[in-house]
């Protein structure tokens, strides 16, 4: 059993190489890729051959091959693109080796799986056919394929008619529906059972309140798990504290307090006595760094501004920092 990370890593590898081609201006105007299957529009066969050589030259492990249109038709992952004059049309594509081997009607399998297979193939035909003629032609092929698998023709025709009826009803409802009355609700996708239950509940609620409630399910992206998270120093997240500054170029020091996050107060110190010290004593106030500020058990975390002022005053009197002007913080900052 192969690793599920194989296609993911291959896609990441190709995305990296495609970014290089984009930066170098080498990407064609139309370039679509699914894992290792690529569709590109080229002005000529020579240009296609040159781009193929460029792709294979990106890495020694790459070996792409090229397939050109035949009779203005080219297949791409189950779909055939047909050039009709100046327009492009699409239809279902089957490889020449396709045998039409699907779930037999007489197999010992629950009937709901057989019905679901039939509905899936009809939906696929509708989604990949850009014209009504192509869809009708594919339905004729499905009748032939499923009849060989002993599916009753009445079951096949009934499934096709039901699909067309539901699809036409959905199109009509979408045309008649005022988009301004639709409320879309973004919800995390858990599993299909839960999604179906949520749809039913919102549909019932819509009938009661008037506006159409439409769920939009979003899945968790791989990037959310792989996104690097910056580990900030603990001092950055400290707030409502008394702190001490010590210059690492001389013996200057300072004691202060802040009720906000400490990193905000540190940024403001470029224009305070500390900033003036760096400018006058060392010629550059950009030498101020967070590592010069300390907050340890010897300094206090406070519950209020009054607590901060009391402990700041006590530490100023105890440490006698030479950059502090006032010695009585409470009188200077609270009562004045």
TrEMBL record:
<dbReference type="InterPro" id="IPR058912">
    <property type="entry name" value="HTH_animal"/>
</dbReference>
<feature type="domain" description="Reverse transcriptase">
    <location>
        <begin position="1"/>
        <end position="81"/>
    </location>
</feature>
<protein>
    <recommendedName>
        <fullName>Reverse transcriptase domain-containing protein</fullName>
    </recommendedName>
</protein>
<dbReference type="Pfam" id="PF26215">
    <property type="entry name" value="HTH_animal"/>
</dbReference>
<dbReference type="InterPro" id="IPR000477">
    <property type="entry name" value="RT_dom"/>
</dbReference>
<feature type="domain" description="GIY-YIG">
    <location>
        <begin position="238"/>
        <end position="325"/>
    </location>
</feature>
<dbReference type="InterPro" id="IPR013087">
    <property type="entry name" value="Znf_C2H2_type"/>
</dbReference>
<dbReference type="InterPro" id="IPR000305">
    <property type="entry name" value="GIY-YIG_endonuc"/>
</dbReference>
<dbReference type="InterPro" id="IPR035901">
    <property type="entry name" value="GIY-YIG_endonuc_sf"/>
</dbReference>
<dbReference type="Pfam" id="PF01541">
    <property type="entry name" value="GIY-YIG"/>
</dbReference>
